[in-house]
Amino acid sequence: MSITYVDAIREAQEKLLKEDPRVFLYGQDIAQFGGAFKATKGLAEEFPGRVLDSPISEDAMIGMAIGAAVDGMRPIIEMQFADFSSVAFNQIVNQAGTHFYRTGVPVPITVRLPSGGTPGSGPFHSQSMEAIYSHYPGIVVVTPATVSDAYHMLIQAVELDDPVVYCEHKFLYRWLKANSINGDGLPLGRARITRPGKHATIVAYSAMVHEAVRAADRLKEESGWDIEVVDLRTVKPLDMDTVLASVARTGRLLALGEAFPWGGVTAEVVSRVVTEGFHLLDAPPKRLNSRDTPVPYHPNLWAAHRPTPETICLAMRELLTF
Hints:
The protein has twelve helices and 14 strands. It has helices at 5-19, 43-46, 58-70, 89-103, 130-134, 147-159, 172-175, 208-223, 240-250, 264-277, 299-305, 309-320; strands at 3-4, 23-27, 51-53, 74-78, 110-115, 140-142, 164-169, 177-178, 192-195, 200-204, 227-231, 234-236, 253-256, 286-288. The strands form three sheets. It has a seven-stranded mixed sheet with strand order 3-2-4-5-7-6-12, with helices on both faces. A five-stranded mixed sheet has the order 9-11-10-13-14, sandwiched between helices. The radius of gyration is 19 Å and the shape is globular.
């Protein structure tokens, strides 16, 4: 029986609630309704008083969670959509992110952000916020791309004493399935070679890992090129050792992300490779992101807005024939 990406997130929360009395869940409509995406379905009945509906006030949600964490609890906060976390921005980056530095008291909160776009979601329910939170010291930002990582990285996030922004991709919720949730034991902060190759490297994360693999398979079939795909898994911290080792093998780099192009994770990857591994490159590195516009509603426009296997293949052909 297969398990979906969102099922893995629910099972991880169930395990955490069973095994750690300090854990509780807090978010809009997560108790009686099970959350907008059913990631907490049935948990309120199984754990009375520990799965709590919040007011529609994201800053109040995070403020309460910070207080609870300082007092010894391990809250998991579900933002209904990643976009709305901007309302709680001050609490996340100025309070949670700096608290240990200022006081020596940790703030072990995990903020779940349903991230990225889906057809018809539009500009207020489709944004990728990982780079914004990665900019600030003291915050760990994870971006699971597999069913196994969705499960294991959520458990690891809650076990950390640092505040964690856990970016789960909505497009993967029910599309992505696996036969089991057995993982390979990689810790937070370690990237994974998803697809080995020798001619070029694609560094991606979250849902773009799957688009990168599709493009790499197509290029192999059409042209015989072997493309290596690196799944960052965690964008803060950033595992540059794995990225640089891959570029050393292939000599070419495409940094791929679904977020907007200005700045961001892809810019950071390219900047660090150029700074730390310029001698490894046989061609100028490239980066590919969504277009620099708000995310459109119409499914066809949404598909044209973000990187696809077609646009990834085009970028790779330019890179490989340089």
